[in-house]
Backbone:
């Protein structure tokens, strides 16, 4: 079923397409994105097409998940390139609503998730996860896919989405997909395009800092000793600031000290105006 991707802009047209597939007995995967698609996004589409017959990718730069001093206005928008990339990955439909379609006049509802939304990115970006949870809830209910795929690259976001999908009984399987990286370890991200060549050369130290902490935990060291060292290492490597580097329980995201269960090491750091995030898992 590969060919040009069909671009759909209204919820009604999306629902008509999904109903037609359902009548034919086909299953549906949804991949929500903000566009400026790279190979990491396309790996979600590929996984979606392994798990379902048809794939919808949404591209919507969601204003409600950006803070007032964040990069909403300059976030890259390139629909034609995105449509071509999705077609090459075998994606069937690009759902590209405008802001008025998603947030019509009078819109007044927010999905807010406590617990997993707090700390890490939630502490540095107030309101961010409520914006994500609200728009992803809408996308899930607009499309009602069998399965929705999200990257582990945004590990806290994935935890937030799993939480509200379960709490709100949204009948969709949530599937996490491993992070795709450049050859030097840098996690692929639409925001990598913001970096100057000098910043791009420093950026892989974020991944190296995470793997260094994983090695330390495996050798029996404690998070409380490893994380501050990693922060000074990043500043020495040329990062302008570090929002956090923390070790958490991989499932609950509760703070963790040593490798007595599956853990996740998560970090966010800034190179000029570019904020990079990354995380890796480590098992006992
Ligand atoms: P974004 O467009 O940045 O909102 O990302 C859309 C989806 O793609 C999210 O579920 C991300 O976690 C996922 N994603 C972004 N970067 C990567 C990557 N490097 N590898 C795998 N998934 C990714």
Residues:
């Amino acid at each position: 079923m590969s060919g040009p991707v069909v671009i759909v802009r209204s919820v009604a047209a999306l629902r008509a397409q999904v109903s037609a597939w359902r009548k034919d007995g086909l299953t549906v995967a949804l991949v929500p994105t903000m566009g400026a698609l790279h190979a990491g996004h396309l790996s979600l589409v590929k996984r979606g097409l392994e798990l379902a017959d048809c794939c919808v990718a949404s591209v919507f730069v969601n204003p409600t998940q950006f803070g007032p001093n964040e990069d909403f206005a300059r976030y890259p928008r390139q629909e034609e390139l995105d449509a071509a990339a999705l077609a090459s990955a075998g994606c069937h439909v690009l759902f590209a609503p405008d802001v008025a379609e998603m947030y019509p006049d009078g819109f007044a509802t927010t999905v807010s998730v406590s617990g997993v939304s707090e700390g890490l990115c939630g502490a540095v970006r107030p309101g961010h996860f409520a914006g994500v949870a609200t728009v992803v809830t809408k996308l899930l209910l607009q499309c009602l896919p069998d399965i929705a795929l999200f990257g582990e690259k945004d590990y806290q976001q994935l935890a937030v989405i799993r939480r509200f999908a379960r709490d709100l009984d949204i009948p969709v399987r949530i599937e996490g997909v491993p992070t795709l990286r450049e050859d030097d370890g840098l996690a692929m991200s639409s925001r990598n395009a913001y970096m100057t060549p000098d910043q791009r050369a420093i950026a892989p130290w974020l991944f190296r800092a995470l793997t260094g902490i994983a090695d330390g935990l495996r050798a029996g060291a404690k998070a409380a000793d490893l994380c501050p060292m990693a922060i000074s290492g990043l500043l020495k490597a040329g990062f302008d600031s570090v929002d956090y580097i923390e070790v958490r329980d991989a499932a609950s995201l509760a703070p963790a000290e040593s490798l007595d269960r599956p853990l996740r090491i998560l970090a966010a750091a800034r190179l000029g105006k570019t904020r990079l995030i990354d995380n890796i898992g480590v098992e006992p």
Notes: The pocket of adenosine monophosphate is lined by residues 33-34, 40-41, 43-44, 150-151, 153-154, 177, 179-180, 187-190 (CB under 6 Å). The chain has two domains: 6-177, 190-282. The chain has a mean pLDDT of 97.
